[in-house]
Amino acid sequence: MSTDEIEVRPFLSSIRLHAEACRIALAHWHDLPAPKPRHGIDPLALGAPLLPDVALLHVLAGPDFRYDLVGERFREAVPRVKPGSLAGGGTEEPGLRDGFIFSRMRAAVDGGRPVGACNTYVDGRGYPRMSVSTFFPLGLDGGTASDLLVLAFFDREGAPDEDSRALAERRVAFDDVAAFLDRWAPQASHARMPGIP
């Protein structure tokens, strides 16, 4: 078993469960005309089942991001996030700018292409969680984005216990979303998401 297989293995069920939704969002992003304008995002094209898992952010100087739109399931999983809040935590939680997810958001914005991440963490109630996220840059001007579309799925891993903190160490970053999904969740190996054509 290779190192990347060892790193990805804990996330396989979540990746496979959410791969089709990620493919739909990726196809929608690819279909947007340059410069991938924020106003070009079509909720109908994404599909109603995905909207609760979406967040839309604006890139700020600093560098930071402001959440402008936060889907219901996204907000339930990360209660501190609401419209107007800062991804980097602002002055209240400035350490968030050094975090793994923030770095993936920056990678999408600075690289001008979709990227992804899988990670485990412990939520505010002590429950171990796993997330599979894809980050889509919008408003590309000279390769740097002015906005960011995030599609994130948060799966609970079990009940709180003494070992929950160890989960926060698992992280996988991927820079080619399509290739990652093709490798770990081939289209023939999973069913389509209910409610999505």
Task: Going across the biggest sheet, name each strand in turn.
Answer: 2-1-5-4-3-6
Biggest β-sheet: count, sense, barrel? 6 strands, antiparallel
Instruction: Give the strand tally.
Output: 6
Sequence of secondary-structure elements: HHHEEHHEEEEH
Please characterize this protein's 3D structure.
This protein has about 200 residues and is α+β, with helices and mostly antiparallel strands. It is built from six helices and six strands. It has helices at about 5-10, 10-30, 45, 70-75, 100-110, 175-185; strands spanning about 55-60, 65-70, 115-120, 130-140, 145-155, 170-175. Strands 2-1-5-4-3-6 form a six-stranded antiparallel β-sheet. Helix 2 (about 10-30) runs antiparallel to helix 6. The N and C termini lie far apart (about 35 Å). Residues about 190-195 have low confidence and may be disordered.
